[in-house]
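It is worth pausing here to work through a concrete case rather than discussing structure prediction in the abstract. The textbook approach is simple: state the sequence, then state the predicted structure, then interpret. We follow exactly that order.
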Amino acid sequence: MTTRTRKILAAFALAAAAVMPAFAQQGNSLLNVSYDVAREFYKDYNAAFVAHYKKTTGKDVKIDQSHAGSSAQARAVADGLEADVVTMNTTTDIEFLADKGVVAKDWAKKFPDNAAPTTSTMLFLVRNGNPKGIKDWDDLIKPGVQVVVVNPKTGGNGRYAYLAAWGYVKKKGGSDAQAAEFVGKLFKNVPILARGGRDATAAFLQRNIGDVLITFESEVVSIDREFGAGKVDSVYPSISILAENPVAVVERTTAKKGTGELAKAYLDYLYSEEGQEIAAKHALRPRSQAVLKKHAATFKPVQLFTVQELFGSLSEAQKVHFNDGGQFDKIYTPGTR
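Step two, the predicted structure:
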């Protein structure tokens, strides 16, 4: 072997040594791209998963998280944000990514319960003491009541709020025309459309906009932690919607980074007893009946209907209500507020 050859091989060895740690680190890190209201839950869940993974495999792992309105997040992933996993609050956001070839077409079959390890529902948060006497959906269309809600075009939080109001009328025997009229009146009482769940909460509590905030049940825990208990009262309407929180591995990213096994383990752990317990502590309804029963005091009984029952599917609801030119655009225009 010549001196020149030895120098070339040594240079390759040095280059490989420099690159390998970066690849090794990349293979042991994940980015979870999620929706606004799940921010605090995943902070706690990530710490538990890191400890569990170290204990069971001996390997260190780093989890990064990104949160915003769910639909905005889905678009960011489609546009190139390198998420290893997505944890959303509506199936349409993951179906959107499946249609783009970013996640598997059969993503909903990759994990139990249609790949939705937790559920939630929509309730009302009112100011301490409930000064406007808000009790049910009918109170939200009264003159002088201002309602804060997420834009249904940018967040699943807003879509579920809209569908819950529509479904309330339908479950009471009303027609689609009556439901449209009711939801139209409700959105006339909406002073601003928030971009996502945290934006809506900030508008309600920090900017002091509105009398009632329609949001996920789980947001109550985050508000108590961030702003202090007693700032808001929770009001459970007589009828609300079952919201599933679906998850998926982002194959486009994991194939490139070699994180497929880690990503699956991360999502699998959501179904573990510890994962379900952490969810319950953040007011996300666990799929585990045993854990749900244990936290019965947290999850008050409410008459729930499913999206499938009244709208066929979230995809169908998207086409009819939230796509450009759909029912929402007919209801919410500058001239109607």
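Step three, interpretation. Residues 40 and 213 are 19 Å apart (CA to CA). The domain at 122-241+306-336 is CATH 3.40.190.10 (D-Maltodextrin-Binding Protein; domain 2).
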